[in-house]
């Protein structure tokens, strides 16, 4: 496609957009294969004691994904989006095999190092590519579809892996899902996905970006703006970190908390899946609504809702109560997740937007590691419920900070020249 044929908008790019939604579902499924099974594998096959040691796999995943997010943004600007996407899937090839054949916990940790790199390269790139395609008017909707696909697949795969583990054992059958995802995603990314960097350049030449935003920044300036100096970008970064701290903590501790109440593996898998399922499906609505109503209030309410949900999880001790609490936690996360990414797209100029997305995702996915450290240390020093209480307090503090510091970023008063679906 020549540069003169390029158009922005969801309708104009529906085929490629839909393909990227499918690819990101496969990205999410790679995480979902682990969520129910690995904590149980740690206890039952590797006989690990101590929550901090068990959390090493979440910590390594979070650190590797966070750092890779940063480079995914800079490499996407330098080399293009598609090569980065393909590289991410090539790195994923050994992950399910390592999980299946791991003779000790070190192999599991190494597999999660590679999985974090895979997630950082592939998920970051699908985010950037969708923002490129749709232009400024429909960022919330685009991010809603992207994150709904990813976390919907996390939920479905977590539930399916739990069912397979209950029927066939913890290994190898649940991890065969991941092997199939890698093969399909690598084929689609190599053969069907098209480069989108020229769409970002097209948008940069149109009068649709925020007034007063600098068009050229160094990598250091982008990092500083997104981390500290810009109230909206830095607020999004801290909220993203706390949000994923909650997810990282849930990944390691929730299966153990639910199992400690005598729940079967199938019920544990259902509860673990409910959180990302509601999170994923809810984003289809919240992303689009943030395009109409703005970003700030969704983010504030979402962080406060997560805090309340975590408090309920810490208090509850029955299956039905945990169902209600995990649904509430998923709803709060759905309000936040696509809206934070849309905020980055609102504020960052197309010339440095991919790098800003990379920095935001660096901080956001550092939350996995923070959740592993917080959850592991507090659970070892006190108990699992105390760790959940700590996450609840941080979520409430994050919501209050957003309400005080962040300004509204939605470009509702700007003219949009792209075709509206």
TrEMBL record:
<feature type="transmembrane region" description="Helical">
    <location>
        <begin position="173"/>
        <end position="193"/>
    </location>
</feature>
<dbReference type="InterPro" id="IPR036259">
    <property type="entry name" value="MFS_trans_sf"/>
</dbReference>
<feature type="transmembrane region" description="Helical">
    <location>
        <begin position="108"/>
        <end position="129"/>
    </location>
</feature>
<dbReference type="GO" id="GO:0022857">
    <property type="term" value="F:transmembrane transporter activity"/>
</dbReference>
<dbReference type="InterPro" id="IPR011701">
    <property type="entry name" value="MFS"/>
</dbReference>
<feature type="transmembrane region" description="Helical">
    <location>
        <begin position="298"/>
        <end position="315"/>
    </location>
</feature>
<feature type="transmembrane region" description="Helical">
    <location>
        <begin position="322"/>
        <end position="344"/>
    </location>
</feature>
<feature type="domain" description="Major facilitator superfamily (MFS) profile">
    <location>
        <begin position="13"/>
        <end position="410"/>
    </location>
</feature>
<feature type="transmembrane region" description="Helical">
    <location>
        <begin position="253"/>
        <end position="278"/>
    </location>
</feature>
<dbReference type="InterPro" id="IPR050171">
    <property type="entry name" value="MFS_Transporters"/>
</dbReference>
<feature type="transmembrane region" description="Helical">
    <location>
        <begin position="12"/>
        <end position="31"/>
    </location>
</feature>
<dbReference type="InterPro" id="IPR005829">
    <property type="entry name" value="Sugar_transporter_CS"/>
</dbReference>
<dbReference type="GO" id="GO:0005886">
    <property type="term" value="C:plasma membrane"/>
</dbReference>
<feature type="transmembrane region" description="Helical">
    <location>
        <begin position="141"/>
        <end position="161"/>
    </location>
</feature>
<protein>
    <submittedName>
        <fullName>MFS transporter</fullName>
    </submittedName>
</protein>
<keyword id="KW-0813">Transport</keyword>
<dbReference type="InterPro" id="IPR020846">
    <property type="entry name" value="MFS_dom"/>
</dbReference>
<feature type="transmembrane region" description="Helical">
    <location>
        <begin position="84"/>
        <end position="102"/>
    </location>
</feature>
<feature type="transmembrane region" description="Helical">
    <location>
        <begin position="51"/>
        <end position="72"/>
    </location>
</feature>
<keyword id="KW-0472">Membrane</keyword>
<keyword id="KW-1133">Transmembrane helix</keyword>
<keyword id="KW-0812">Transmembrane</keyword>
<keyword id="KW-1003">Cell membrane</keyword>
<feature type="transmembrane region" description="Helical">
    <location>
        <begin position="386"/>
        <end position="404"/>
    </location>
</feature>
<dbReference type="Pfam" id="PF07690">
    <property type="entry name" value="MFS_1"/>
</dbReference>
């Amino acid at each position: 496609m020549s540069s003169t044929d390029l158009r922005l908008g969801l309708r104009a790019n529906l085929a490629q957009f839909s393909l990227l939604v499918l690819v990101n579902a496969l990205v999410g499924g790679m995480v979902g294969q682990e969520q129910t099974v690995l904590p149980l594998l740690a206890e039952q096959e590797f006989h690990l004691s101590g929550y901090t040691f068990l959390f090493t796999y979440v910590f390594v995943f979070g650190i590797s994904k966070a750092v890779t997010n940063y480079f995914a943004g800079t490499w996407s600007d330098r080399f293009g989006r598609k090569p980065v996407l393909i590289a991410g899937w090539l790195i994923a090839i050994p992950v399910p095999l390592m999980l299946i054949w791991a003779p000790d916990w070190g192999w599991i940790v190494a597999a999660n190092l590679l999985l974090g790199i895979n997630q950082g390269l592939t998920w970051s790139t699908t985010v950037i590519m969708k923002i490129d395609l749709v232009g400024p008017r429909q960022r919330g909707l685009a991010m809603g579809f992207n994150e709904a696909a990813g976390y919907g697949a996390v939920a479905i795969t977590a539930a399916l892996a739990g069912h397979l583990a209950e029927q066939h054992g913890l290994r190898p059958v649940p991890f065969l899902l991941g092997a199939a995802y890698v093969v399909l995603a690598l084929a689609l990314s190599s053969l069907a996905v098209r480069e989108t960097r020229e769409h970002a350049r097209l948008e940069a030449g149109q009068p649709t970006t925020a007034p007063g935003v600098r068009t050229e920044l160094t990598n250091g300036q982008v990092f500083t703006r997104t981390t500290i100096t810009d109230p909206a970008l830095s607020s999004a970064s801290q909220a993203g970190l706390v949000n994923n701290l909650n997810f990282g903590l849930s990944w390691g501790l929730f299966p153990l908390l639910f199992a400690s109440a005598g729940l079967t593996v199938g019920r544990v898998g259902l509860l673990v899946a409910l959180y990302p399922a509601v999170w994923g499906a809810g984003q289809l609505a919240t992303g689009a609504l943030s395009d109409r109503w703005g970003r700030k209030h969704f983010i504030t309410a979402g962080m406060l809702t997560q805090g309340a949900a975590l408090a309920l999880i810490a208090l509850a001790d029955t299956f039905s109560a945990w169902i209600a609490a995990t649904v509430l936690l998923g709803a709060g996360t759905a309000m936040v997740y696509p809206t934070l990414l849309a905020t980055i797209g609102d504020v960052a100029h197309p010339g440095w937007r991919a790098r800003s997305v990379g920095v935001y995702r660096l901080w956001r996915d550092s939350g996995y590691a923070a959740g592993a450290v917080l959850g592991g240390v507090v659970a070892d020093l006190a108990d699992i419920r105390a760790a959940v209480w700590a996450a609840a307090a941080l979520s409430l503090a994050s919501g209050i900070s957003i309400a005080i510091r962040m300004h509204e970023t939605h470009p509702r008063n700007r003219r949009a020249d792209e075709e509206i679906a």
